[in-house]
Amino acid sequence: MNLRWNEKGLTLIELCLTLLILGLIIALATPRLAGSYHSMHLKSVAQKIAEEVCQIQNQAELLEQEWKMKIVEDGRGYLLEKEETSINDLNLDQKKWEVVFQKKLPEDFSLECSIEEIAIFPYDGQPIQLGVKDGKNRMITIQIENGQYELFSQKHIKK
Asked: Counting beta carbons within 10 angstroms of the beta carbon of residue 143, is it exposed (0 to 12), middle (13 to 18) or buried (19 or more)?
C-alpha cells in the first residue's frame, strides 16, 4: 500500500469548523430576518386597508354616494357599506345600507379606531385614522385624507 502524505485537501476538523461557523451565522441572522418579516407583513396589511378605503373614497366622491366603514368582530375585521338608493323608497328619513365589501384580518392582527362607524364619504374634513396592530404589540397608524393615505410606524405599544 502506497500512502501519500503530501495530498492537498480538507481534513475532517476543518470541515467541522466550517460547518460550525456557518451554523452560528445562520443562528444569529434568523431572529433578525423573522422580525423583518413580521414588520413587512404588518405594513402590507395596513397598506391594503388604506388602499381599499382610498379607492372607495375616490369612487364615492365621483358617484356622490355615501359610504361608511364599520369595524367588526372586536377589530378582527371590517366592512364597507354604501347607502342604498331606490326610487321606490317612501321613507326618506331612514337610510338603508348595503354591505359591499367585508374583510377579515389575518390571525393575530386587529384594527383599532376611536369610533366604530367611520364616514368615508362625505367626510367632515377630519382625516380618517386607523391603527393596525399585530400580536407582538407593534402598530402602524393609517391616516387617510382626500383619497390619499400615509402610514406611521410605531415600534411597540405598551398595554
From this structure: middle
C-alpha cell at 40: 413587512
Q: State the distance between the two ends of the chain, measured CA to CA, in whole angstroms.
A: 74
| pLDDT per residue as tens digits for the range 91-110 | 556 778 899 889 999 989 99
Prediction pTM value = 0.71
Query: Measured over all CA atoms, what is the biggest interatomic distance in the chain, rounded to whole angstroms?
Result: 107
CA separation for the pair 88, 64 (Å, rounded): 20
Note the CATH number of domain 43-85+95-154: 3.55.40.10
CA distance readout (Å), 122 to 2, 62, 63, 155: 92, 11, 11, 33
